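Final report, closing paragraph on structural work. Over the funding period we assembled a curated collection of sequence-structure pairs, and we close with a single example.
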Amino acid sequence: MDPYQIIINPMITEKGTQSSRDLNAYPFKVHVKATKPQIRAAVEKIYQVKVTDVRTANRRGKPRRTRHGRSTATSSWKKAVVVLHPDSHIDLF
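Its predicted structure, as stored:
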């Protein structure tokens, strides 16, 4: 899989900004079928940094109601928190 297909987008949130500043950990929305080694390789290739740890979590879609009273759900997605080497830094956050 292409690195740009694995990393969908960085999650720029208040919590993510604080964790990047304090813990050098950056959250990303990633492809649902991406593995930890693939995520590590993709981040290292795209941002030219040294990754020390990758944590992942599968997020289930939330139930929603439509205008017509039907029940649907939002899409499920995968979140990855990438911890970088102390000398590395990503400038997005």
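Strands lie at 7-10, 25-30, 51-59, 63-65, 71-73, 77-84. The radius of gyration is 15 Å. We thank the funder for supporting this effort.
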